[in-house]
What we know:
Layout: H1 13-24, H2 28-42, H3 47-54, H4 58-70, H5 77-81, H6 87-90, H7 92-104, E1 106-108, E2 117-119, H8 123-132, H9 143-152, E3 155-157
Parallel strand pairs: 2-3
Antiparallel strand pairs: 1-2
Helix pairs in contact: 2-4, 3-4, 8-9
Amino acid sequence: MIIPISTLFLLTESHIEDIRLAASKMYGTERRAFQAAMAIKYCQGSPRQAETMFGWGRQNVEVGLAEKRTGIICLGMQSAFSGNKRWEELQPKATEALRQLAESHSQQDPSFRTEIAYTRLTACEALKQLREQGFSNEQLPAPSTMAEILNRMGFRLRKVVKAKPQKKFQKLTPYLTI
């Protein structure tokens, strides 16, 4: 669908400011998709016209149009390569030892509705047993992190429910009526 060039003049200055404000509240892929949609709607898909009208960088609009056309989302270097790697990626041998350890202490969900395995192994006990297998403290995470790792691996930590003693009730004495 070709939109006549007269559409450029349908936007008032306040509309343009509203569109700029909306774009400034978004980041990354969402922002580029919005810029591409506005470029298609008001600028006939031209990044240069979008740059002139809205003050956006035309490279961003070009990337947004390419993402919309191909369906492939472009990741920036910051989001693709930043952050710490997970412990499982840094310590594959310790991860495999932890998986074997947790599997030996786990049982299937009693309802058999999920693939979650419940384990009585605590994070502290897992750390202790991994140390006994020869892994150093530098290779092992903190107990709270170990609990998260076990959860990510599909093992849910559950407290062992022990038998509770019954409460002793006082014997009721019949009231004497006089």
